[in-house]
Amino acid sequence: MNSIPRRASRPVLAAAVISTFALALGACGGGGGSGASGGDDSVVIGYTGPLSGGGAAYGKNVQTGLQMAVDDLNEDGLEVDGKKVTIELKSLDDKYAPSTAASNAQRLADQDEAPVVVSPNAGAIKAIQQINDGRSKFMISAYTSDPAIMQADNALTMMIPPNFESYAKPYTEQGMKHGGKKLALLGTESEYGQQWTKAITDEWKKAGGTIGADNSISYATVSDFAGPVSKALAEKPDSIFVGGPSQPTALIMEQARKQGFEGSFLVMDQAKLDEMATVTKIENLTNSIGVLPVKEYDDPGNKDFLKKYAEVAGEDKVATSETALNYQSMAIIAKAMEVAGTTSDPDKIRAAVPDALSKVDDKYKVNGFPTKITDQGHLMNPELEVTYLNEDEKYTKIPVEQVSDAK
Fold it and tell me: What percent of the chain has a predicted confidence (pLDDT) above 90?
């Protein structure tokens, strides 16, 4: 299907000033530029994510990073095709439902003319990939580590985090080093969680370990974790695979320690060790393998970002990779629009990303800033690391060899 042409501009003018002449200029189109003459332009970047319900904290972490970047970019000033442009973030709640996310994305593209829509949910992204090259084309800024979205061969998808399958080998090595050969499975039962469970199960078996029953549970709806934890511990595991949003993951690990578990935890990338330490005592989290906390990165903009985040979210809040990676990816999108010379053509914006990466200001480089984007659309930093939280409550960095996104 051919996409409906977008209006060439979004003038920031009072409604009463928008005349028939101005509308006629917009209808004329004009080479994919950011707008007609007169006044500053604006562009909407769409966001659909869980802003209520069990995934709200996760969804709001993403939203905070996006909004922080929008505020900074607008303060710095963005110029596209010789015009000053103001970025507006428009957010819609999808409650983690893929069908709702797809409807939201279509609405943002149709009604708000968003050239880019951000989604932090693998299932939602897969649903959105079915429509983003339809009646209103738009690029997907995909915050998921699920490689399946790259395997969909969608030319207008940009994947932000590392492929989670890269974590399976170092997790297994560290789990066996600090635990033993038997692994219990207590991950989230979502589609994404089950893919993680399969990846870690395959790698664990490959290394000569044994796997207990799949005791995956709904991290979004279950509130009493004593029963599921007891069932997993009855298998007498040396290590436990856990993970979903940080809060329920922390409570599961706390419950396991209360029931006497002394082994190691393999923590899925959605849960963050330092964020979980605000939910339970850090001693319940030690002897765990997880993703590296944002504060442990040495990117040039990291320290200022953390300071700014504390001012925005509060000193008691922990900046997670959801916030940090989306902060820097928004800067990449803005720079790509500048390089492409358009705020309305998603094909040109996506094509400009490779050149844009080297032009992003250091202040936006906060969390393993990518140095390249693959042909499939995956942002990559070659120096990926995970961490082991030891008994002394210290983080040890562990290098990760990244795997291919291909099937």
Answer: 84
Kindly report, residue by residue over 30-87, the tens digit of the pLDDT. Answer: 333 333 334 579 999 999 999 998 788 889 999 999 999 999 999 999 999 999 999 9
Whole-model pTM: value is 0.87
For residues 285 and 250, give the distance between their C-alpha atoms in angstroms, rounded to a whole number: 8
- Residues 154 and 224 placed together within one structural domain of the fold: no
What range does the domain containing 332 cover?
Answer: 15-164+301-380
The helix/strand/coil state of 144 is: coil
Place of tokens 């959105």: 128
The residues near 36 (Cβ < 8 Å, ≥ 6 apart) are 8, 9, 11, 22, 25, 26, 30
In angstroms, rounded to a whole number, what is the distance separating the alpha carbons of residues 106 and 51?
Answer: 18
Residues 305 and 282 occupy one common structural domain: no
**Domain harbouring 266, CATH code:** 3.40.50.2300
C-alpha distance from residue 33 to each of 76, 114, 205, 355, 372 (Å): 21, 15, 54, 18, 26
Give the count of domains, the chain. 2
Residue 183 has pLDDT above 50, yes or no: yes
The phi, psi pair for 108, rounded to 5°, reads -65, -40
CA angle, residues 96, 291, 228, in degrees to nearest 5: 60
